[in-house]
Amino acid sequence: MVNARFSSPCCWMLALAAGACGFALEASAADAPAAAYRVISVEYPRELSLEVGGLARLPGGKLAAATRRGEVWVAENPYAADGKGVRWKQFASGLHEPLGLAFHDGDLFTTQRSEVTRLRDTNGDGVADEYLTAGKGWGVSGAYHEYAYGPKFDPAGNMWVTLNSSMGKAEVKDSAWRGYALRIAPDGQWQPVSGGMRSPSGIGINAAGDVFFSEQQGNWNCAGGIHHIRQGAFHGHAESFAYAGLPGAPFAKPAEPVKNLPIAEAARRMPIYKPASVWLPYRKMGMSCTDITLDDTGGKFGPFAGQFFVGEFTMSQINRVFLEKVGGEYQGACFPFLADFQSAPLRMEFGDDGSMFVGQTNRGWNSLGSRSYGLQRVIWSGRTPFEIQKMEARPTGFRLTFTKPVRRESVASAEWKLNSYTYEYHAEYGGPEMDTKELAVQAGELSPDGLSVELRVENLREGYVHELHISGLASQDGEALVHSDAYYTLNKIPAP
Questions:
Q1: Tens place of pLDDT for every residue, the chain, 496 residues?
Q2: Which of 12, 111, 175, 317 could disulfide-pair with 141, CB 3.0 to 4.6 Å?
């Protein structure tokens, strides 16, 4: 989660240094844009240590929160305009660091370190009186980093769970399937689907039902990223090869695993390796990815319906990710969204009204912000911010679509800067951008509706991040872009 020179508990030192050196994102919850989104803090009792590990929207306008201390609490009136007057009641306790929460088929489900547990209130008194095992059987050796995340339910009713790597040598029999994604059927039977994960803190399912996880920078990962989970995929963290010989493994260990190569070359030489659909460049887009949340609000949260929001731990911010399929594979762009939260956003959940609840905790690795944990709510005012709504790959460049019509004359006068770079696939902790090149870019004509611009780019490179910076562009009503940066992971150039 941090630079290779520091151990994980020192993350806060880097975070403070990054803020002091100007690495913080361009816009924040306080000033970008104040009229479009506002953030309020949700009150909770002083005696409640609300280190949020999971959030779930409940019927009747309620919200459930799992805490890393092993409890589940239910909040009534969480939509209070000022965040006050919220009533909290303990629903469950005695759990082993739950790091996910879901409401499904009338009950709450949470993932402890050793199992997925179904929590049932059979007598209607608001307290769970049955703790039922809904899935179990993976290895737990007791290593500190053996977190288990989830569940997330897909449209077929399967649960998805991701398992943190042990971060060190462990006996296979004690820690089986560390670094793998598990699909658990409604009857509790499960199988590993993909592996090679380091710290897969977030699980997201898009509108098509495809499953993704967020990865954090560290060994075998020079940057965080959003990865597509699919059968047989190896996502890069080589410690998971220790379990590739177990029955049911989704891939076999290659006879000659590769390393110390540019990512695209490593993927060519080791076909099971599937790099990130979207890389989130280190520090530029944060340092430690957490939750993935789909905007399924139908426009209640602004002009980003169908896109993912991604939590960022160390820098206490939330980013945004647009995905598209090119050549049958997902790729896309990431953008800043909001920063300056009071603590690390670990879990997000959209509410009935389309607002976003942001559950926070910085235990283990401190984060920027004024508090160690808590709950905040992001509310859209109804005013559309001037943003890059999406960035799509084209055979000769990119198409940018904006949230508001662009002032036509500003397209020609604006400055468009683009460069591309990649990372080395290696065992070391983190790593710099490599093979960086400035690219010639020319903005084409604005579309008739004023919303889209085609960028012609020389020397597009597959397997590279293409980093865009825009200055001087204005909307028809004279606004500057709230965020003028975008980072597109071009795994494949579209066919003409």
A1: 333 322 333 333 333 333 333 333 334 444 444 579 999 999 999 999 999 999 999 999 999 999 999 999 999 999 999 999 999 999 999 999 999 999 999 999 999 999 999 999 999 999 999 999 999 999 999 888 999 999 999 999 999 999 999 987 666 778 899 999 999 999 999 999 999 999 999 999 999 999 999 999 999 999 999 999 999 999 999 999 999 999 999 999 999 999 999 999 999 999 999 999 999 999 999 999 999 999 999 999 999 999 999 999 999 999 999 999 999 999 999 999 999 999 999 999 999 999 999 999 998 788 999 999 999 999 999 999 999 999 999 999 999 999 999 999 999 999 999 999 999 999 999 999 999 999 999 999 999 999 999 999 999 999 999 999 999 999 999 999 999 999 999 999 999 9
A2: 175
Contact indicator for 278, 484 with CB cutoff of 8 Å: no
Between vectors from CA 255 to CA 251 and to CA 260, what angle results, nearest 5°? 95
Helical residues (DSSP H) of 300-422, grouped into ranges:
408-413
Write out the DSSP string of 427-456.
SSB----EEEEEE-EEEEEEPTTS-EEEEE
Do residues 294 and 397 share a domain?
no
Give the Cα separation of 434 and 164 in Å (integer): 28
Distance, CA of 131 to chain centre? 29
Question: Which residue spans within 164-242 are E strands per DSSP?
Answer: 180-184, 190-195, 202-205, 211-215, 224-229
For residue 96, being part of any structural domain is answered with yes
- In the chain, the amino acid numbered 52 is V
- Give me the domain span that covers residue 218: 8-380
- How far apart, in whole angstroms, are the C-alpha atoms of residue 468 and residue 284? 12
Of 329, 362, 380, the one marking the end of a domain is: 380
Residue 362 sits in the same domain as residue 405: no
